Amino acid sequence: MFPIRCFSCGAPIGHLWEKYNRLVKSNMSPAEALDSLGVKRYCCRRMFLSHVEVLDSFLEFSVASSGRSE
Length: 70
Known about the structure:
Helices cover 43% and strands 0% of the residues. By secondary structure, the protein is mostly helical. Helix 1 (17-25) packs across helix 2. The N and C termini lie far apart (34 Å).
């Protein structure tokens, strides 16, 4: 879950996450992708570069049944 705003400056950046992912997956470098999206501040850029998507790993540990056995 990508943050909606930059933690340091408060600029809205959440709406750019999917566009950034598409650009990087199309073999564009992260720096070029951020430049093309207009992300100039280094605090905002680090939000993209350091983000780790953990939701996919949490889904691997979903409970198969609702009942508990003891």
